[in-house]
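dumping the sequnces here before i forget
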Amino acid sequence: MSAERALTALRAQVTGEPAADALAQAAQGGDLSAFEGLVRRYQRRVYGLAYRHLQDPDEAQDLAQEVFVRLYRNLGKYDPERPFEPWFWRLAANVAASYRRRRPAAAVELPATTAADAREDTLPLERALADLSDDLRLPVLLHYYLDLPLDGVAASMGLSLSGVKSRLHRARAILRRVLVDEDA
Amino acid sequence: MAANCVWVREQLEPLIDGDLAPARVDELRGHLAACEACREHYAEASSLPTRLAVVRTPEPPLNLVRDVLRRVRGDRVGPMRLWGPLGLELVLFLITLWYVSGFGGLYLLVQRTAADAGAVLGWDLGQANLPPPAAGDLFLLLLCGLLVATTLYHLTLLARLGLRLS
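..and the predicted 3d for all of it:
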């Protein structure tokens, strides 16, 4: 844990950016610009998770906003003695897992250009990922894309550790078969 | 595809994650050494976790940060808004105390309330006329209503801030 923190501090020194832990601590004290710094730092990854999870730009933006608003409201629960990122990704995973689509999938209207471009332009892996069912795609995104440990995924989704492993195995087997077929 | 290949491919992900017993691992490795098609599946399965970690995602919308900050600013509660109701609560409480004026006043209040309740009960049974509401009681009721409303609003603000106050 301390090595991880040291690495984060070193990265912050090299890049000249304030460390996420320091930003979180300042935001906890009411510094809104520090909170803005956190949003700017994590927006790409949070939006990426939301977009891959929901497959809809509007819904993804809504979910990403929800993650950051929940972060703000829960800053009081963050323990500054611990690294910020694992805590934050756990929170993001909880919000993503409990997020309910506002509209049924069939009623989602994507702009014609976005939908068509997305389909033609995406790589086989991205298409295969999009075609997975929600209950298989989310653990994949949380574990591989967000790098959340298995127990974190299990807690976020209300599953057992073996349940998460089983879903990951099933999801990867589906993806693997699709990719092998694409290559053939 | 041989039946054995089907069985082997079902075990590839647990094999890569190290979730299988050594004897099973040896069995699978033996098959993979001899079967090119299954090796192709194994190679694809091995590279998947790394490829999933760097899966391409679109740029976040430009207004994401702005919208988040707008929502968060709406959440922020300044000290005046937070502690202002305390002044009103104090004033209402003092007026109520002054109105009730100690134990004597409290006794009087209970006595009058009991008398009113008895009169209302008698009116309901058809034995008496409905007593006119005492102006003082209405005033006290209004004070208590205001005090409860202000306190509830204040508690809502405090609850929204949650642990950040501690």
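The longest helix of chain A spans residues 32-54.
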